[in-house]
Amino acid sequence: MSSMEIWSNDQPQTLSAPYFQSPEFTLFQGDSLELMRGMADAQFDMIFADPPYFLSNGGVTCKNGRMVSVDKGRWDRSQGAQANHEFNMAWLNECQRLLKPNGTMWVSGTHHVIYSIGFAMQLLDFKILNDIAWFKVNPPPNLSCRYFTHGTETILWAAKNHKAKYTFNYALMKEENGGKQMKNLWSIMSPRKDEKTFGKHPTQKPMELLRRIVLASTDEGATILDPFSGSGTTGIAAVSHGRKYVGLDQSDEYLDLSIRRFQGLQELQEAEG
User: Fold this and answer.
1) 79 and which of 83, 107, 196, 208 could share a cystine (Cβ 3.0–4.6 Å)?
2) Is the separation of the CB atoms in 142 and 150 below 8 Å?
3) CATH class of the domain comprising 5-272
């Protein structure tokens, strides 16, 4: 197919041709909000989003022992608290519309953005199920020495609304936690070196984090959306476990990285038979 047809109110809407498409892994390039507005309701079983943190202000951080700029690009620059919140309301509203009736939404963020996300979710009548504290184990040091090192990130998990009969694979999560109930504190290392074989993204999430999210809240055959796809970690985790994936991103650099990672996964799966 050269394009994806999305049906709304019995009339076909057509997105621009996918940047890349296979039966289980599809990427679109463009403004995420505009792309989502071109899709019909109730398309996805789960959405994972790692939205802009609005941190690209000319500051610095430590990476591999070196001081580097945190300027990730224009997409990550703050336009002020009110404008940032309005943006979060807009894309979350589209995500809620795109979720199936029993679908769930995961959003990852630091303190710079997560409180706006949580408030927006409440205003939109999502049902917040958990706030996951992701303990990064090996975070970069705090160069300013003027506050505590940021060693955690918050992930909000929410159902589409308070009526949703959402999926939670409790038994599997308990099994993965040595037979004990899994808590909302997850100790997971930052992405390993081998996860960056094909290239890297400034806010890349570890595969183990997305693997757990995918397995916890979807069943095999589910369709997953990531509106800020980045390096495609959500998609690789989804396809690795029998789910289908749609990713949206503006950057051809990161879309190409996602394709290389997907093709690498295909080669590995073929080699393993």
Assistant:
1) 83
2) yes
3) alpha beta
What pLDDT, in 10s, does the model give residues 149-203? Answer: 999 999 999 999 999 999 999 999 999 999 999 999 999 997 666 666 555 556 7
User: How confident is the model at residue 1, as a pLDDT?
Assistant: 35
- By DSSP bridging, strand 127-135 and strand 152-159 are antiparallel
Element (H, E) at 260: helix 252-272
Are 16 and 74 in contact by the 8 Å Cβ rule? The answer is no
How do the domains of the chain map onto residue ranges?
5-272
- Does the global pTM surpass 0.90? no
CB crowding 52-82: b at 16 or more within 10 Å, else e: bbbbbeeeebeeeeeeeeeeeeeebeeeeee
Rounded CA-CA distance 257/203 in Å is 14
Q: In this predicted model, which residue has the larger pLDDT, 2 or 88?
A: 88
* Separation CA 10–CA 195 (nearest Å): 42
d(CA 176, CA 246): 27
> What are the beta bridge partners of residue 152?
135
Coil, strand or helix at 159: strand
